[in-house]
Design goal:
This protein is α/β, with parallel strands linked by helices and 284 residues long. Strands 3-4-2-5-1-6-7-8 form an eight-stranded mixed beta sheet, with helices on both faces. The radius of gyration is 18 Å and the shape is globular.
Length: 284
């Protein structure tokens, strides 16, 4: 993919003391549950005491809207951060969920790739911004997790997320072309690892919009598990009307209806993510 092939291969170091764990939620397909997963995973992590920042890198700004951030209140956005006009802390706003904040996005992000042109550091803008996020900040104002909600494409914004991230979490819809899209995404991850971020890993793949009444859903699950093995989380996110309704109220489904099957699934997913995090810490 040319957006990676042409990017300057600069300083690759991606570790600083006191930095948060950075997980990018990525899939070049739209409508697979990236934003919903970012919002609800962030909410679940915050609920157990983590201090979480969601970085909205999608020009559509659905993560920001889904957390109740009015467009009129996005005075400083992730566009300003990546354009070098403001530090990431200036774009951060609180949500109604304790310990969960978001750096909101605006449509200005859609023109960023053209604006940055052939600047040598264009793939590392987000990495550098997150690198100083916790500088000179003491608890309880520092962040332990940063979740990056990527746009539904493999463009410079997604490359920035992958260059900044420790790991990729891939929401994958239970549909016919799921594996085809996954294969393309994995190729991009390999390119980023080779050229920009050698420490990047696949945290896991979460199967979304699962419908147990649909034979195709079950076949996709079997195929993905055969193809990716243990990288696929045990938890599957079901099709659930409460998940679909929650964003229109500016709330995570965990706040909108804690008892619904969608909320229960996201709580289980958060438990799996935390378990994998513990395993990663013990093996490194």
């Amino acid at each position: 993919m040319t957006v990676i092939d042409e990017i300057y291969q600069g300083d690759r170091s991606n570790s600083e003391p006191g930095r948060p764990r950075i997980i990018a939620l990525a899939n070049q397909k739209g409508g697979v549950g990236k934003t919903t997963t970012a919002i609800n995973l962030g909410t679940a992590l915050a609920a157990i005491g983590e201090r979480v920042l969601i970085v909205d890198l999608d020009p559509q700004g659905n993560a920001s809207t889904g957390l109740g951030i009015d467009r009129r209140d996005r005075n400083t956005s992730t566009y300003d951060v990546l354009a070098g006009e403001a530090p990431l802390r200036d774009a951060v706003v609180a949500t109604a969920v304790p310990r969960l904040h978001i750096a909101a996005s605006t449509m200005d992000l859609s023109g960023l790739e053209l604006e940055l042109g052939h600047r040598g550091d264009r793939a590392f803008r987000l990495r550098d911004a997150i690198g100083v996020l916790n500088k000179d900040i003491d608890p309880p104002l520092d962040y332990t997790y940063v979740l990056i909600d990527c746009p539904p494409s493999l463009n410079l914004l997604t490359v920035n997320a992958m260059a900044a991230a420790d790991a990729i979490l891939v929401p994958l819809q239970c549909e016919f072309f799921a594996l085809e899209g996954l294969s393309q995404l994995l190729q991009t991850v390999e390119q980023v690892r080779a050229n920009l971020n050698p420490n990047l890993t696949i945290h896991g793949i979460v199967l979304t919009m699962f419908d147990s009444r649909n034979n195709l859903s079950s076949q996709v699950v079997a195929d993905v598990r055969q193809f990716m093995g243990k990288k696929v989380y045990d938890t599957m996110i079901p099709r659930n009307v409460r998940i679909s309704e929650a964003p229109s109220y500016g709330k995570p489904v965990l706040v909108y209806d804690l008892k619904c099957v969608g909320s229960e699934a996201y709580l289980k997913l958060a438990t799996e993510v935390i378990q994998r995090e513990r395993e990663l810490r013990t093996t490194h």
